[in-house]
Design goal:
single chain; about 260 residues; alpha/beta; 7-stranded mixed β-sheet; 3-stranded mixed β-sheet; about 45% helix; globular
Length: about 260
């Protein structure tokens, strides 16, 4: 891939690649990067289109807002052109509804693959699906004006785009419940204090901070980062002894590889 090669540009999503760093940009600032099924399919396609050379993926949104969440047209009786409306979805069978939501969720799942590290660079509004998209990434850098909110419960729905698991892991059950049930705004200071954000920067420094973090992540050997990410991401589901075993196995692989003895 050549520098800044455009791999995909459709339905409000642009994917560019610069050597080992890919950038996924939400490109509909006029609608505050509101989300739709077409955008979700484009995000899924972006994940599948990543070249094997990519180690870090930066997710960003054009304009003043990262993403204001689901496009309200989804709640209209006619829905989106060529898409089933929420009302139509509700009238289908449970199996059909489950399959549709599972398809939407695919846009939010690939960001935590072990072979990449993903960074969300978040400014302005990150509401509902926008909040969940930021949560889908491994790391979050936020601007001082960031406003996270999980508004689904306030609309009579639940957060269903994979955001509940990382939210509970980051801030704990009680705070996650309070954030979701009240739909309140989480500002930058609280986001950093509670672990939702790794770093808070002025809005005009957000892109530069993302580039700096990507460069820092590239400094370590790729295989060591991959093994470390796998260790850490699985730590909460393992017992202490299981984690010790996983550490020994991973270190053994690294030592054999460094000694030229890998299988």
């Amino acid at each position: 891939m050549t520098s800044l090669d455009s791999v995909l540009d459709k339905d409000g999503v642009r994917l560019t690649v610069d050597d080992a760093v890919a950038t996924v940009t939400l490109t509909n600032p006029a609608k505050r990067n509101a989300q739709s099924p077409a955008l979700w399919r484009a995000l899924t396609e972006a994940g599948r289109a990543l070249p094997g050379s990519v180690r870090v993926v930066v997710l960003r949104g054009e304009g003043k807002s990262f993403s204001a969440g689901l496009d309200r047209q989804a709640f209209a009786p006619e829905g989106f052109d060529g898409e089933p409306s929420f009302i139509d979805m509700a009238r289908g069978s449970e199996a059909e509804l489950d399959a549709t939501i599972a398809e939407y969720q695919e846009a939010f799942t690939w960001w935590r693959r072990n072979d990449i590290v993903s960074i969300a660079a978040v400014q302005g509004h990150a509401i509902g699906a926008g909040f969940q998209l930021a949560l889908a990434c491994d790391l979050r850098i936020v601007a001082e004006d960031v406003q996270f909110a999980m508004r689904e419960t306030s609309l009579g729905l639940v957060p269903d785009l994979t955001g509940t698991h990382p939210l509970v892991n980051l801030v704990g059950y009680a705070r996650a419940l309070e954030i979701c049930a009240t739909g309140r705004i989480v500002h930058a200071e609280e986001a950093e204090r509670t672990g939702l954000a790794n770093l808070v920067v002025p809005a005009d420094q957000l892109d530069a901070a993302g580039h700096d973090l990507a460069a820092a992540l590239l400094a370590a050997p790729r295989d060591a980062v991959v093994e470390t990410k796998a260790l850490l991401s699985g730590a909460l589901s393992r017992s202490y002894e299981e984690q010790r075993t996983a550490e020994r196995a991973a270190q053994g692989r690294r030592l054999r590889d460094l000694a030229g003895l890998a299988d």
